[in-house]
Amino acid sequence: MIILGIILLLIGWLASIQILTTIGIILIVIGAVLWILGATGRAVGGRKNWY
């Protein structure tokens, strides 16, 4: 999710498309939060492991 956010952020910034930049920032933030929660061992969405 973080990588997709970075890609959308770059495309939106280079093409001057504001909505892609906004979506990219949102995906980066959500991905970082989920990554931190997963790294601390906290169950995300009721599951500890995603397969």
From TrEMBL:
Superkingdom is Bacteria
Bilayer-crossing residues are 6-37
Pfam families for the chain:
DUF6131
InterPro entries hit by this protein = DUF6131 (IPR046134)
Q: Which UniProt keywords apply?
A: Membrane, Transmembrane, Transmembrane helix
Protein name listed in UniProt? Uncharacterized protein
Organism of origin is Intrasporangium calvum (strain ATCC 23552 / DSM 43043 / JCM 3097 / NBRC 12989 / NCIMB 10167 / NRRL B-3866 / 7 KIP)
